[in-house]
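Order emerges. For instance:

***
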Amino acid sequence: MIRALLFASTLLAACQPEAATPHVDPHAAARPITWDQLLDRPRETATLRIAFGEGELEFGELWLPQGEGPFPVVVMVHGGCWLSQIPGTILQDYVAADLRDHGVAVWNLEYARIGHESGGWPGTFEDIADGVDHLREVAQAHPLDLDRLVFTGHSAGGHLALWAAARGNLPEDSAAWRDDPLLPETVVTLAGINDLANYRANGPGRCGEPATVDDLIGPVEAQTPDLMAQVSPAAMGPMAVGQVIVSGEFDPIVPPSLGTHYAALAQARGDTVRHVVLPEAGHFELIDPTSPAWQEVRAILVEALESE
């Protein structure tokens, strides 16, 4: 595992533009955890793995609490810079287990990423759309209450969770358009890359941007308004879904200024959105169930589920 993580870190560094100035994190000493430290911990396993398509990456992992239910549900999307070289659903195992232990079912999605045969636009987005909508079939066989449904995702997964909540705005000729998409009342992005154009232009380079954004959706010259309206929540028009944008104060990968920028844009177009900056938190504290930041995140998720 450590060797694989070191390889992924090397790959991310290689993706940065040659002329870019290395990003120095001024808060490194204040952040108690890195992603390899998180993944070195023992992990619990999901109740079931359920395919939603024929591809080997088209599956979700269902975490069911004890009891009869029906249980409120969180649809969860992992991050990892949209890259195949970075681990997938296991990044969310820790918080999925924590939510399960607090009476919340979790549908943790896998999807094709950059480096997989169908990764990027539109394959990555089609996987998320199909995985979310398959939850209706899962609920026919398991005690899930889809009237209490929240989407969440971390980092690149935050982008995809917010995109999934916004896809009711997709034009019918979009490859990712689906009839009657399953939408939540609320979406909570955790260090989410909510505005692809802004991240491409102003991200700190820690996720390989701008190259990773181009690898995800195509070269910059092809990033037309029509395309951005299909791939970037910031460009997809007003959303009828409540949004909570969560940032870590010391996050060097998706700094809170990016969350502030997106929240202002969403508010200006009439969305119901709030931006929460968690003090003394970096990037991975938001998915570390032992951190104070996660206690705040869980409270936000539970409050959203209970208000529906």
The chain has one domain: 29-306. Residues 174 and 230 are 7 Å apart (CA to CA). The chain is about 35% helix and 15% strand. The domain at 29-306 is CATH 3.40.50.1820 (Rossmann fold).
